[in-house]
Design goal:
The protein is mainly α. The protein has eleven helices and two strands, in the order ααααααββααααα. Helices cover about 35% and strands about 5% of the residues. A hairpin with a 2-residue loop joins strand 1 and strand 2. It binds iron/sulfur cluster.
Length: about 260
């Protein structure tokens, strides 16, 4: 590692700032083979590549079969075409629900927090996101608001609130969802939605069937508190019944448990 910069090896900002993106930079770390050089040129504009100095320091300088090196340095084999190959084998484009949320399995979501990978792994199963900049990680710009993403996630809390008093006209309480969402808006110093049904619709969630006449988010939380509702308390009646409900409904987009 010595001689390769004076930056902080334990600081990821520093690593990203000094990311290796050219053959010349890569040569400071390994003896680049003609095949590797050809692959780097061939991947230009097709599959992104970048290697942090930390990762480069782990690579064998002379052996192109070094597994860490093979994970990070482009290979001509990436450009071979296979009839069944897909740039989205894990189905991110199918299960994407909002700009940042991928909801494939009932009880967990993936949140896309950035379009940047410090090292572009050659084996990546999310090649769709790491192709040319045109095939961005995000359906929309990375800087767009997080409220819709969190709103979607907040519709997936089946084990909360079932023992809490509901608002008028609603089948159960949604105090955790509403309180967490209100806190997010306050944290971001934005006015909370006056119509949560419309707001959730933007996030791809139809909560109209379970929402009563009170739709202003702040008023909902205040009224729920007046009724004695408490957020973040696991329901005694949740359990398997609630999980089953999510498994059969949310993933198909038919209903949101809230
Ligand atoms: S998404 Fe993950 S596996 Fe794919 S290139 Fe980025 S860090 Fe590597």
């Amino acid at each position: 590692m010595s001689g390769h910069g004076s930056w902080d090896w334990s600081d990821w900002h520093s690593q990203v700032q000094h990311t290796i993106t050219t053959v010349e930079e890569l040569r400071e770390w390994i003896r680049v083979t003609p095949a590797e050089e050809a692959a780097i040129a061939a991947c230009q504009g097709r599959y992104r590549w970048a290697i942090t100095p930390y990762y480069a320091a782990l690579m064998d300088r002379d052996d192109p079969r070094c597994p860490i090196r093979q994970q990070a340095v482009p290979s001509l084999r990436e450009l071979e075409s296979w009839p069944t190959a897909s740039v989205d084998p894990v189905g991110d484009t199918v299960y994407r629900r909002t700009n940042r949320v991928i909801h494939k399995y009932p009880d967990r979501v993936v949140i896309l927090v950035t379009g940047l990978c410090p090292v572009y792994c050659r084996h990546c199963t999310r090649k769709y996101h790491t192709m040319t900049p045109a095939a961005t990680y995000f359906a929309r710009h990375e800087g767009v608001s997080w409220e819709e993403d969190f709103a979607y996630i907040l519709t997936t809390f089946p084990l909360l609130d079932r023992d809490q008093p509901p608002l008028p006209g609603e089948p159960r309480s949604f105090i955790t969802r509403d309180q967490a969402l209100l806190a997010l808006f306050e944290l971001r110093r934005k006015p909370p939605p006056e119509d949560i049904v419309a707001f959730f619709a933007q996030a791809g969630a139809d909560i109209a069937p379970v929402t009563g006449p009170l739709r202003d988010l702040r008023e909902r939380v205040l009224w729920a508190w007046e009724l004695g509702a408490v957020a973040y308390v696991p329901s005694r009646r949740g359990g398997e019944e609630a999980v089953e409900e999510v498994e059969t409904s949310e993933i198909e987009g038919e209903e949101f448990a809230g």
